[in-house]
What we know:
The chain is mainly beta and 276 residues long. It contains one helix and 15 strands. Helices cover 6% and strands 47% of the residues. The strands form two sheets. Strands 1, 2, 3, 4, 5, 6, 7, 10, 11, 12, 14 and 15 form a twelve-stranded mixed β-sheet that branches. A three-stranded antiparallel β-sheet has the order 8-9-13, with no helix packed on it. The N and C termini lie far apart (66 Å).
Amino acid sequence: MGACEKDITSEVKINSQPMLVVTSFISPQDTGLVVKVSKTRPAVGVVTSNSAKVTDATVSISNGTRAVRLNYDATRDIYWTEASTLPILPGETYLLTVSTPDGAQVTASCTVPITEGIAFTKLEHSITTESYEGQGDYYRHSFDFQWQDAAGQENYYHALSLLEYYEPGLNRNRRLPLDNYGEKVFFSDEKQDGQLFASVGKFQYSSQDVLPSPLYLEAHLSVTDRPYYLYHESIEKQNQTNGNPFAEPVIIYTNIQGGLGVFAAYNQIRAVKQIN
Length: 276
């Protein structure tokens, strides 16, 4: 406790030079190219709400023969351009470059996965009834889907299921993610090459509610590259520590050269099942 009696900030040499933090995920299915750029916050010193913002960076993505520049969008605090300016194609490698007027520069590359040999093998919907005293019956819906892994190549997956229905009052379709109840959503085919994989999503309605009609269940499977998988896996592991001071520290994966963050790719396949 003796150290609390004296301010030693000026006596401790801490490297507080901010680094660029860059995050971007690209996909053939996206309508825009989006890059988030910020700075690390210093370990000591004054921190303001705008200290991490980077609004004057030069951001570009290249396919090796052609590069496009992304412009800063202040309303969303991102760098953005239409995907049509540089189509993202399966099997192609892309290079991201970010530089700032103070001389900082970072780079990263990623290759968009292919989906050949990967296909859904099952889309199954089931209902169970649960009764709660004083609350009546609840109908729990489960949406299970399986897919076949493409053998002989390294594959990674991000599985997501959605509920979609039309809202007449708002004249739009509404899409809601289903709860996975703690089940895995990120997969690697390491030691499971060529096998079947499965994911499940659930939602429930009271017997007093009226289900929208028509009601659709959507299976979204993102075939991802290794950086996408490793980045999200490290985020999940960090979240699982839940502030436990005795938990093993988790280092967040990065593939940004000269900075922190991730530049990764995914390629999505989708299937829909109508349930009423």
